[in-house]
Amino acid sequence: MRDVCVIGLGLIGGSVLRAAAAVGRRAWGATAAEADAEAAVAEGFDASTDVEAALRRAAERDALVVLAVPLTAIEEVLRAVSECAPSCLLTDVTSVKSGVLAAARSFAPDTRFVGGHPMAGTAESGWRAGNAALFGGAPWVVCVEDDTELGAWAEVAGLAIDLGAQVVPLTAAAHDEAVARISHLPHLFAAVLAAVGADGGPVAMSLAAGSYTDGTRVAATRPELVRAMTEGNRDALLPVLDEALGRLGAMRGSLASTGGLAVSITSGHDGARALAESRQGTPSGVRVALDAPDARDGLRALGERGGRITTLADGTAIGEVR
Amino acid sequence: MRDVCVIGLGLIGGSVLRAAAAVGRRAWGATAAEADAEAAVAEGFDASTDVEAALRRAAERDALVVLAVPLTAIEEVLRAVSECAPSCLLTDVTSVKSGVLAAARSFAPDTRFVGGHPMAGTAESGWRAGNAALFGGAPWVVCVEDDTELGAWAEVAGLAIDLGAQVVPLTAAAHDEAVARISHLPHLFAAVLAAVGADGGPVAMSLAAGSYTDGTRVAATRPELVRAMTEGNRDALLPVLDEALGRLGAMRGSLASTGGLAVSITSGHDGARALAESRQGTPSGVRVALDAPDARDGLRALGERGGRITTLADGTAIGEVR
Q1: Taking burial as the number of CB atoms within 10 A of a residue's CB, which of A211, A258, B203, B313 is the most buried?
Q2: Residue contact B203–A170, C-beta within 8 A
């Protein structure tokens, strides 16, 4: 099994280091955050604050380097990768993929880069919030571009599967559009609901029940995390936000004119049913041979259909789709 | 204890009948829905499909009449009340208060009407979904207008407290504005999120996690219930929807121009903290003597501050506010 070098030891990076070590991989980490490095060392992990030394070791041992730093620090770390491990196998775990892909091409052009995004997390952050089981059963997007080297892709997908996740192959652009809809827009909506609710004063807070507490829950997320994901995904988020504004504006128009909201509310009900149905039904098996000429198309089609890969064996990705 | 006559035996009405009987009140009910009446009788309750007979009995026994029919049926039932029990003690449990107040003044002008709204419920509906414990600890708005007769108000508040609820005194207008913020807008937002998410197809559904499932949960509510509450509260909901559109539009503008969302996201975070803080802190006791000249103002001020009344004793409303 390939060695793993994790840069950044917060919630996600710290969980990758723990989980990689737990499955028997040689794994080490480095972070600029002294507290995280100290906590990792205290728990017996191979960790330090010397990012460059960790990367040079990755180059020597041909390790897979996992960038788990905040989106705002990616560029700086890519420069260090380019200097210390210029042709390494490289992935990342940040929540926006097109921007990181462009940055990797600019700042670490000789690496074998494959973007990734494990869809797991908690409201907590830092090393102490992580655990080796964080990725169990979670979707982990591993990007497939037209020029993605499938050998490198299989290394990254293999790590995700080793760590308990299910791999969703998508282009960076498809990932960013999907998460704009199902993560970044919900965060913006929660922020607006929480602000409009609080503007109602103590009586509104006193009467708030399920629909409000559910709808505003993620507004309690640390603002810098929400800013990083939404501002970092601006290009994909803007058209999705416009769709939402269009739908809300249509509701406003109907309520003010005819007073009827049947169309809007039924669309939402249909959407809720689509989510429920996507989680039911019997999965059917899917196999994609990674050496086939259309392997990249096959992988992306699987991801677009909502499928996930659960095994990599003999050069074949094996998964299921509902 | 005063007798209770419940018209409408769905989730809320059925729970009122059960809970009133459970605390030892003489209670009977009637509903146009045969299945609900049969189910209630089968469980040993005094119920029928003869609404007029139930109302005439209420007039004879000077019972408190509780209207628990859908908002769209209120006018028809008020006409029956006016004919069969024209001067009865009357309340309702529907989710919009100004419209019902106006209808009661028009169609049953001689009743002693006090509007109410128990903030309890489940996604289910019908007699079988109800239970006697539904109102335990829940806020129950009991309306106080300038012309509200406080003797009638105390009868309605007393029933709510008997059934386990905590009474929030508010004008119909204040109630409608608060629920527009913390219930009706969240339902509209959930509908938009669910529609925009589903437009992302299977891949969006496959990647959907907590922020999306929380934000869209109430979009699965039966569309006719959501329509009744939102369309029925149009006057209060429109300005709140405009506030929300203004905030979302400002986000859109910031994201498209500077790309920064700090102000919007911080406002949402502040709102989430306001909700959390409203549920902490030590409550302080409050007493309002119902025969004081400014009793109505005192009650409404308590409700506006997020306070609740938990006891009625010797003509005094006793409660707490945080």
Answers
A1: B203
A2: yes
Contact A196 B185 (CB under 8 A): yes
User: How many Å lie between the alpha carbon of A81 and the closest alpha carbon of chain B?
Assistant: 28
Q: Give the separation between CA B247 and CA A267, rounded to whole angstroms.
A: 23
Q: Do A218 and B214 touch (CB under 8 A)?
A: yes
| A281–B contact, CB cutoff 8 A | no
Both structure tokens of A257 = 């004119």
Instruction: Give the side-chain half-sphere CA count within 13 A for A237.
Output: 33
Mean pLDDT of B190-196: 98
Residue with tokens 């006719």: B224
Please tell me the distance from the alpha carbon of residue A218 to that of residue B210, in angstroms, as a whole number.
9
Q: Does A183 touch chain B (CB under 8 A)?
A: yes
**Is residue B122 predicted with pLDDT exceeding 80?**
no
Rg (CA), chain B: 21
Using CB atoms, pick whichever of B205, B237, B248 lies closest to residue A245: B248
Asked if A246 is an interface residue toward chain B (Cβ–Cβ < 8 A), one would say no
pLDDT (0 to 100) of residue B322: 87
A124 — contact with chain B (CB < 8 Å)? no
Q: Which of B192, B234, B263 to mutate to test the interface with A (most CBs of A within 10 A)?
A: B192
Sign of the CA dihedral running B253, B185, B231, B304? negative
Q: Is there a contact between B206 and A267 if contact means CB atoms under 8 Å apart?
A: no
- pLDDT computed for residue B123 by the predictor: 65
The predicted structure's pLDDT at residue A123: 65
Of A110-124, B13-27, B30-44, B59-73, the range with the lowest mean pLDDT is A110-124
Which three-class secondary structure state does DSSP give residue A239? helix
What does the pLDDT look like over A276-313, one tens digit per residue?
A: 999 898 899 999 999 999 999 999 999 999 999 999 99
Cβ-Cβ contacts under 8 Å for A39 (sequence gap 6 or more): A126, A127, A128
A107 Cβ neighbours under 8 A, 6+ residues apart:
A75, A78, A79, A81, A82
Q: How far is CA B299 from CA A143, B150, B174, B265, in A?
A: 60, 10, 13, 35
* The pair of three-digit structure tokens given for residue B13, joined into one six-digit string: 């009405």
How many residues are present in chain A?
322
Confidence of residue A125 (pLDDT cuts 50, 70, 90): confident
* Interface residue B284 vs chain A (CB under 8 A): no
Residue B280 contacts A where some CB pair is shorter than 8 Å: no
Q: What's the ipTM?
A: 0.92
- Answer for the pair B71, B41: CB distance below 8 angstroms, yes or no: no
Which of A195, A203, A269 has its CB closest to that of B271?
A195
Instruction: Tally the C-alpha atoms within 13 A of residue A8's C-alpha that lie toward its C-beta.
Output: 23
